[in-house]
Amino acid sequence: MKKLLLALVILVAVFAGIWYALSRVDWIKLFKLEQATEKTEKKLGDLLWETYSRNETEVEDPLVRKSVDSLVTRICKANGIDRNSIQLHVFEKSEVNAFAFPGGHLTVFTGLIRDMENPEELTGVISHEIAHIRLKHVMKKLTKEIGLSVLISIATGTGDGAVIGEIIKMLSSTAFDRRLEKQADLAAIDYMVKANVDPLPLADFMERLADKEEAKASEYLSWMSTHPESGARAVYIREYAGKKVSDPDPVLSAGTWKKIRESVK
Questions:
Q1: 141-200 pLDDT per residue, tens
Q2: Mean pLDDT for the stretch of residues 1-28
Q3: CA-based angle 115:211:100, to the nearest 5?
Q4: Of all residues in the chain, what percent carry a pLDDT higher than 90?
Q5: In whole angstroms, how large is the CA radius of gyration of the chain?
Q6: Phi, psi of 90 (to 5 degrees)
Q7: CA 203: distance to chain centroid?
Q8: Nearest CA to 65 among 92, 36, 27, 83?
Q9: Model pLDDT for residues 192-236, shown as the tens digit of each residue
Q10: What is the rounded CA–CA span in Å between residue 107 and residue 88?
Q11: Cα distances (angstroms) measured from residue 62 to each of 70, 143, 253
Q12: What is the pLDDT of residue 184?
């Protein structure tokens, strides 16, 4: 009986402690902080995009633009992602690269499109970048390395403008940590499976990167710098993807893909 009473006393004490701790949390303040962070992300993303795009040339070819956009739309629609939350930008640039800015800005270079052996590989890379956006990896990285207060000051126009260039360089040429990269890889596979797209070509692309890493091919340096250890990633991507899609649907016709590849050479 004494043991039972002691257990009840301990249980009541634990619940009382939890209640007290929760009562001390300023939920309104936390909610406002989350809202402020979301507003900061959008303003910061728009500012970075505006600054970056001044010196770059966007692709005007409607076939390329619409085709790449269709890949984004397919992934978003199949996974319940608001299509308007992803702003696609395709630039005429020879580097093999793609990356995301805050606020849902997704940047793809024609060098990446040119290097893809099939549209499923491109869909895999796009899905990976969408995962970074959806999982808030971009802001987590910037908050960790730059600081939220600095980001807010930049977004409100009161910060040091020189930092903007450093942020752009960081997002376009430095890696996320291994944990975040793996999260994005696995999420990308899940996105593709739901869209009935074969995810294994993403592993094929990673294996090709691993070969280029050994050769130190200059045209791959951009993507390799942001996505290191491609060989190891190819292994777990292939293991995770397995045979989850037994009868995938093509994302683009062979004729359309051929025309796209020819137009970005």
A1: 888 888 878 787 887 776 666 788 888 888 887 778 888 999 999 999 999 999 999 999
A2: 50
A3: 50
A4: 46
A5: 22
A6: -110, 120
A7: 17
A8: 92
A9: 999 999 999 999 998 888 777 655 544 554 555 555 577 888 899
A10: 6
A11: 12, 37, 16
A12: 94
pLDDT at 133 > cutoff 90: yes
For residue 55 the two structure tokens come to 């010196």
- Whole-angstrom CA distances from 31 to 13, 25, 102, 155 are 29, 11, 20, 19
Of the pLDDT bands very low, low, confident and very high (cuts 50, 70, 90), residue 30 is: very low
In sequence order, which residues have a C-beta less than 8 Å from that of residue 184 and are 6 or more positions away?
A: 128, 129, 131, 132, 135, 137, 176
Identify the pLDDT of residue 42. 87
Contact 87, 104 (CB under 8 A): yes
What DSSP letter does each residue of the chain carry, written as one string?
-HHHHHHHHHHHHHHHHHHHHHHTS-HHHHHHHHHHHHHHHHHHHHHHHHHHHTT--B---HHHHHHHHHHHHHHHHHTT--GGG-EEEEE---S--EEEEGGGEEEEEHHHHHH-SSHHHHHHHHHHHHHHHHTTHHHHHHHHHT-HHHHHHHHTT-S-THHHHHHHHHHHHSPPPHHHHHHHHHHHHHHHHHTT---HHHHHHHHHHHHHHHHT-GGGHHHHHHS--HHHHHHHHHHHHTTS-SSPPPSS-HHHHHHHHHHT-
DSSP bridge partners of 105: 87, 101
Confidence of residue 32 (pLDDT cuts 50, 70, 90): very low
By DSSP bridging, strand 105-109 and strand 87-91 are parallel
